[in-house]
From TrEMBL:
Lipid bilayer topology: Multi-pass membrane protein
Lineage of source species: Bacteria, Pseudomonadati, Bacteroidota, Sphingobacteriia, Sphingobacteriales
UniProt protein name: TonB-dependent receptor
Lineage: superkingdom: Bacteria
PANTHER family: HEMOGLOBIN AND HEMOGLOBIN-HAPTOGLOBIN-BINDING PROTEIN 1-RELATED (PTHR30069:SF29), TONB-DEPENDENT OUTER MEMBRANE RECEPTOR (PTHR30069)
InterPro entries in alphabetical order: Beta-barrel_TonB, Beta-barrel_TonB_sf, Plug_dom, Plug_dom_sf, TonB-dep_rcpt-like
One Pfam match: Plug
Keywords for the protein's UniProt record, in alphabetical order: Cell outer membrane, Membrane, Receptor, Signal, TonB box, Transmembrane, Transmembrane beta strand, Transport
Domain TonB-dependent receptor-like beta-barrel stretches: 174-687
Subcellular location: Cell outer membrane
Length: 725
């Protein structure tokens, strides 16, 4: 190991923890901000589970192209990515509809089944991000079988006043320019806030000038991935009334993004791309592209009455997604787009999803038990349009009832228990091609691609756990059963998924996934050391996966390989490791490691792992937090190195991914100017412009490496004040 590598391994923990002006403050806030151990959660249902927490300050220090890329530095958390700005969460190797994202008490619902469907959430508006690792179906129902990303708005002001923050930023790799304004205020018991964010970026760069799409060499001008530019615009409003015994706050947000897809990788026509047209500008957004608008309205209400604490959360969301592309005829589609079609010629697909959600819960104490009972209900309506078909329109209803219990045996030991019943119903509509196909008898007919489908699912899940404090040690154990109902794509898909180069076929007979899991956490904290080890194990009796077959659809699938949804038994296990050590007053060393291993125990892929399984990785970091001075406060310098091992455990048609090492640098300070303090932050990601593939990235399927060197500069400008009584 050379000197540069040793130094690189030692510098990053300050990113997770805000460096404080005084040594005592740094020690106090530094550990608690990221590693929430028991104290905050001992009185909640998830007290026996592994939970990491990041504040808005930490999120800005880690800032990447998307929320999940920002969070992916935490061990056990990964981003399933497509490009520089679109990614979705993965926890311990499980993603898509197996991880629930909850914002201000309401489960975020978009089109999360697709690789290219990132989270429609503004990362600059988040006050706190909590990552619950492991199955959490007993809290949030079906989609939480792999874990939960729980997001909250900034904490409301405690005193009267008005405060705000402007954040200006730029990124070198894809020439991002933009900013965010966040505002909050209070007058007596009335609170309000909101914000707006706008980002614009060009095609991103990779450390190669050639990629291979189906063995066809695609040259990249200036190493830019053509047609990956985009724009993001969002705004939020919130307001309401807060008192000790009653509060009611509404949250309104609208997130809009317009982004292009890598033109040479959309479908099977890499040779037919007009590269001169796409290379004319690196900021234009041509076809293929997508426009996404996500509107969300939430009402959170709290009532304290006698011994009861009651919460009522109501939510409405609308996810409106349009995918545009030049019309291309496949199979028996007309070679020229008919003039009498009501569908616009460039509208390949449209998904319009509305979601209504309600959660009610009551917490009270009965003898020594702290009980929480409640339920939630959800209704989804998803309509489709466009000249291309993948999944049908559908309606879905879900209802869940639960009871949680916390029982302290003594001051050192707490027992937890939970029981939940869920019922769901899905009704998908039939779909028939708008064009005629020739049948075997030389007759023509419009083929039915999806039949009408009605399915109902129900399940009883449970969880039991315990926490034990033993001096400087704390241990947690949680075991339970979880479930996940199959979604419309898995039941009724019948079309080309261009982002996965596949023709997908659903199976209407699929049964709900059943999972049994065990999570263990052992942690020790001393004055200058913290260590936590969190192993886990779980078993799926009928895991749903997309199974590649030997067939190719030449008529409706443009020659793509046929993939069919199937089920198999799966065993999964792994662990995360977190170590922090302060050898000197202003120095901090951190070690973060993760490992997950999955194996299919039945079916045609018996003995193989699961798709997009993250490779083992290790981050070694060194941070320097100098003492504050008159003009510079909360300063930090951080250098970290991430090692990722080879991923040779794959499931065909996946290919093995080579290991890699990358180096990152971060620095920041608060520059005091009178009564104000500018927040200055600098990041240099992938310092040496290393060429590498991430096994959880979609684009590794075409050997497209991850982003090259990226310099991120942000300036935070606080304003306003909070009155003190």
């Amino acid at each position: 190991m050379n000197r540069r590598t040793i130094f690189s391994l030692l510098f990053t923990y300050s990113i997770l923890h805000p460096a404080c002006a005084q040594e005592k403050a740094a020690k106090t806030i530094g550990l608690k901000e990221v590693y929430i151990e028991g104290g905050r959660y001992k009185k909640s249902a998830e007290g026996a589970m592994s939970i990491d927490v990041l504040t808005s300050d930490s999120l800005q220090k880690y800032q990447a192209g998307s929320l999940m890329q920002t969070l992916s530095r935490l061990p056990g958390v990964n981003a399933i990515g497509i490009g520089a700005s679109q990614s979705k969460p993965q926890i311990r190797g499980l993603g898509f509809n197996r991880v629930a994202t909850v914002e201000n008490g309401i489960k975020h619902e978009g089109q999360q089944w697709g690789l290219d469907h990132g989270l429609e959430i503004d990362q600059y508006s988040i006050g706190t991000a909590e990552i619950i690792k492991g199955a959490s179906s007993f809290m949030y129902g079906s989609d939480a079988i792999g874990g939960v990303i729980r997001l909250s708005s900034p904490t409301e002001l405690q005193e009267n006043g008005l405060k705000g923050h402007v954040n200006l930023l730029t990124r070198s790799n894809n020439a991002t320019y933009g900013g965010s304004l966040q505002l909050q205020g209070r007058n007596g018991n009335w609170v309000f806030g909101g914000g707006a964010t706008h980002l614009g970026y060009a095609d991103y760069r990779v450390p190669t000038d050639t990629v291979y799409v189906y063995n066809y060499a695609v040259r990249l001008k200036d190493r830019q991935v053509r047609n990956t530019a985009g724009q993001e615009t969002s705004f939020q409003l919130r307001g309401g009334y807060i008192s000790d015994r009653f509060s009611s706050i509404f949250y309104l947000s609208n997130y809009h993004t317009k982004i292009g897809f890598f033109a040479n990788a959309h479908g099977l026509e890499p040779r037919g791309v007009d590269t001169a047209l796409y290379d004319r500008s690196d900021r234009d957004i041509l076809y293929p592209s997508q426009h996404v608008n996500h509107f969300k309205l939430i009402s959170r209400n709290y009532i304290a009455r006698d011994a009861h604490k009651i919460w009522v959360d109501l939510g409405y969301q609308r996810n409106y997604r349009q995918e545009f592309n030049n019309y291309t005829a496949h199979g028996y589609m007309p070679p020229v787009y008919p003039q009498d079609m009501t569908i616009p010629m460039n509208l390949e697909r449209l998904y319009d999803k509305e979601i209504y959600h309600m959660t009610v819960k009551d917490e009270f104490v009965l003898a020594a038990h702290r009980l929480t009972i409640g339920g939630n209900a959800e209704y989804q309506l998803n309509n489709i349009d466009g000249w291309s078909f993948l999944i049908p329109a559908y309606r879905q209803k879900a209802l869940g009832l639960f009871i949680h219990d916390q029982y302290p045996i003594n001051e050192q030991t707490i027992l937890y228990g939970a029981l939940r019943y869920d019922y769901s119903n899905i009704h998908s509509s039939p779909y028939q091609d708008w064009f005629a196909s020739k049948l075997e008898n030389n007759q023509s007919a419009n083929i039915v691609r999806a039949d009408e489908l009605r399915r109902s699912f129900n399940s009883l899940v449970w969880s039991v756990g315990a926490t034990r404090q033993m001096g400087l040690w704390e241990a947690k154990l949680n075991v339970g059963k979880s479930f996940r109902g199959p979604i419309a794509q898995e039941l009724a898909a019948n079309g080309v998924n261009y982002h996965y180069f596949s023709y997908e076929k659903g199976d209407a007979s699929l049964s709900p996934e059943q999972s049994y899991q065990m999570d263990l956490s052992v942690a020790r904290r001393t004055g200058n050391t913290y260590i936590a080890f969190t192993p886990f194990f779980n078993y799926f009796s009928n895991y749903i996966y997309l199974n590649p077959t030997s067939g190719y659809d030449q008529f409706y699938g443009a020659g793509n390989q046929i993939f069919e949804y199937s089920q198999s038994k799966v065993r999964r296990y792994g662990a995360e490791l977190k170590v922090e050590y302060r050898p000197l007053t202003h120095w901090k060393v951190e070690l973060l490691g993760e490992y997950v291993r999955s194996e299919q125990l039945s079916g045609s892929k018996k003995g193989y792992t699961l798709p997009f399984s993250p490779a083992p990785s290790l981050v070694l970091d060194l941070s320097w937090l100098p003492k504050s001075s008159t003009y510079f406060k909360e300063s930090y310098l951080s250098l970290d190195s991430k090692w990722t091992a080879n991923q040779k455990h794959i499931v065909p048609p996946e290919e093995k991914t080579k290991g890699y090492q990358i180096l990152n640098f971060r620095a920041g300070t608060q520059l005091v100017l009178g009564r104000s303090a500018l927040q200055l932050r600098l990041q240099v990601q992938n310092i040496f412009d290393t060429k590498y593939m991430d096994h959880t990235s979609f684009y590794r399927l075409i050997s497209l490496p991850e982003q090259g060197r990226n310099i991120i500069l942000s300036v935070g400008i606080p304003f306003g004040k909070q009155n003190r009584s």
